[in-house]
Amino acid sequence: MPHELDARGLICPLPVLKARKVLKNLPAGAVLRVLVTDAAAPKDFALFCAEAGHELQSVRPSGDAIEVVVLRGKG
Question: Is the pLDDT score of 61 beyond 90?
Answer without folding.
Answer: no
